[in-house]
Write a structure and sequence with these properties.
With about 475 residues, the protein is an alpha+beta fold. The protein is built from nine helices and 25 strands. The two termini are about 25 Å apart.
Length: about 475
């Protein structure tokens, strides 16, 4: 993610609340279905995600009408139980649940805030694969995060764009909404015929039925739910292929068509450059979604197809494309590990500038350390507000240290091991953790394993975990 309205993104944060107030529903609703663990214990969003199962696939069938702002959906969640489950929880913010079934049989359910607790007729046994189908509808909500940014279902002038970082995806489909649980997806989006519906992955065809357009999308590689997107509106669609044959599908608001052309023209070049630096592109297609300025307060690295509110410049395009490797394919184990997303994507911008006639990475590092990088003193001081690996709370998980100081950690590693070893480290980290999730501890262990003769203790203690500005650059 990267904010467009400031030099450093602040557009991630909390989610929470709402949606049912403990109401019971379903066949023979019980007073208390007796849930298994709700929440996976994330240090910043402890109610996000759920224990006891691992999702393999989401099948989402959604119909949206912008006029009355009404969403109707059927979500089928296929998962494997990691423990015996007399009941299980799904995250769902707002929306009215009409019916729940487990393996085709009606199930009891209960709402309590963002928790949808489901009790199947018979307990699910450990290692069993099961399917939960939830039918729901209503006016999807916008979630305001602790840092003041908005996510979830965002209404636009001609439709909507649904964004999920960190918790907004639960505003439009029920699921295990934590980055540690990735899954494949199939999305069917029904909208008024005059509009288009764009999502992640590859298009699987479209049709019109009366005054409705139906578009289908398939995501074959694992994806964290916060990276899912549904963009509904009037778009100019551009289809192409890169030199090596990678399909590119981009959707641009007509008002942004001319302003977006320079960045779109460079998209194949950026993808090819990133493959040289980071290794093979990790997904089956690429592209962008360009909305109007103001449709969201930030750009977001939604998988395959990042979203931009207004035409991006090249640096922002590089940032969000780099996330396809670092953040999307190699995902964070928890929201504490956000610097592994944003520090890498920010450093990708430094590398691009270094190789395309701009400042070297060393010059950028020196300017940040000296406090001259940003035009105002407050932004320069914000870089040292907290350690990148230890944001003080959910409102800070996208603060300046996560981006800029996170990139500085990578530059210190580069200084320690040299350019060739650093390049190999970037590619190896992406290759060995492809489509997985990682923690900060995983990364530091990986670096030390790749360069066992080097001393990284000052890098970790002063730059990654230390408070304030280190004494020496």
């Amino acid at each position: 993610m990267l904010a467009l309205l400031a030099a450093v993104a602040t557009a991630c944060g909390g989610g929470g609340g709402g949606g049912g107030g403990g109401a019971d529903g379903g066949v023979g609703a019980s007073a208390d279905p007796g849930p298994s663990r709700s929440g996976v214990g994330d240090p910043y969003f402890p109610q996000s995600g759920n224990g006891g199962y691992d999702v393999a696939h989401y099948d989402l069938d959604l119909a949206y009408d912008p006029g009355p702002h009404h969403l109707a959906g059927t979500a089928t969640v296929t998962a494997r139980a990691t423990e015996d489950l007399p009941a299980l929880n799904l995250d769902l913010e707002g929306l009215d649940v009409e019916r729940v079934a487990v393996d085709g049989k009606p199930a009891r359910f209960r709402r309590d805030g963002q928790e949808l607790t489901v009790r199947p007729r018979t307990a699910i046994r450990r290692d069993d694969t099961f399917r939960v189908t939830v039918r729901y509808s209503g006016a999807p909500v916008t979630v305001t995060d602790p840092d003041g940014s908005e996510e979830g279902w965002l209404r636009t002038a001609d439709g909507a764009v649904a964004l999920g970082q960190p918790t907004g995806s639960m505003a439009w489909f029920p699921g295990n909404h934590h980055p540690s649980d990735k899954a494949t997806y199939r999305l069917t989006l029904t909208v008024p015929k005059a509009l288009r519906a764009v999502s992640n992955g590859e298009p699987e065809g479209e049709e019109t039925r009366g005054d409705r357009r139906i578009q289908r999308w398939r995501v074959s590689e694992p994806m964290a739910s916060y990276l899912a997107v549904a963009a509904i509106g009037r778009y100019d669609v551009h289809r192409s292929r890169t030199a090596r044959g990678l399909p590119v599908y981009s959707a641009v608001d007509p008002d942004q068509k001319d302003a977006s052309r320079p960045a779109l023209d460079r998209l194949p070049e950026v993808l090819e450059w990133a493959e040289r630096r980071f290794g093979p592109y990790p997904f089956s297609s690429a592209g962008v979604i360009v909305e109007r300025p103001g449709d969201a307060g930030y750009a977001l690295e939604t998988q395959n197809r990042p979203v931009f509110p207004g035409a991006p410049d090249t640096g922002l395009l590089v940032h969000e494309i780099a996330h396809q490797w670092y953040g999307n394919s190699v995902g964070p184990e928890s929201w504490r590990d956000m610097w592994l997303n944003e520090g890498f994507a920010t450093y990708a911008e430094w590398l691009w500038r270094e190789e395309h006639g701009g400042d070297s990475a060393q010059q950028t590092f020196d300017a940040l350390y000296a406090g001259t990088y940003f035009a105002d003193e407050a932004s320069n001081e914000a870089v040292w507000a907290f350690p990148p690996a230890r944001p003080p709370g959910p409102a800070q998980i996208s603060g300046a240290p996560v981006y800029q100081r996170g990139a500085m950690v990578l530059h210190k590693i580069r200084q320690t091991v040299g350019d060739d070893a650093f390049d190999a480290l970037l590619r190896g980290w992406a290759r060995e953790n492809r489509h997985g999730t990682v923690s900060t501890a995983d990364f530091t262990a990986y670096v030390e394993k790749q360069a066992p003769d080097e001393d990284f203790d000052p890098v970790w203690s002063e730059w990654l975990h230390g408070t304030g500005r280190p004494a020496q650059p």
